[in-house]
Amino acid sequence: MRKNQVTITLERFGDAVPKNLNAKSMKIEVYADSNDVYEALSVAFNGVLEEIKKNQAMPEFGVVSSHSSVRMNDDLEEI
Fold first, then answer.
1. How sure is the predictor about 39, in pLDDT bands with cuts at 50, 70 and 90?
2. pTM of the model
3. SS3 at position 2
4. Burial call 28-39: b when 16+ CB within 10 Å, e when fewer
5. Collapsing DSSP states into helix, strand and coil, what is residue 45?
6. Pairing state between β 4-13 and 25-34
7. Within a 10 A sphere around the Cβ of 44, how many other Cβ atoms?
8. Would you tell me how many other CB atoms lie within 10 Å of the CB of residue 40?
9. 18 near 12, Cβ under 8 Å?
């Protein structure tokens, strides 16, 4: 079992959805796992960027809001 797993979900709405997809919203989910936390984060982030590039040029950057959360669990279960 890997020591770190990362899931990034990007939801896009309205004009942010590429017109060729003919949808009102889209959700991009990327999963990566690794024993190295930085590798897992880098691979997941790169995966999201690659999915965006498939449909359009890179967007302009400007964060309106962000949120992060940390949950601790003492009971690790083997998967």
1. very high
2. 0.64
3. coil
4. bebebebeeeee
5. helix
6. antiparallel
7. 19
8. 20
9. no
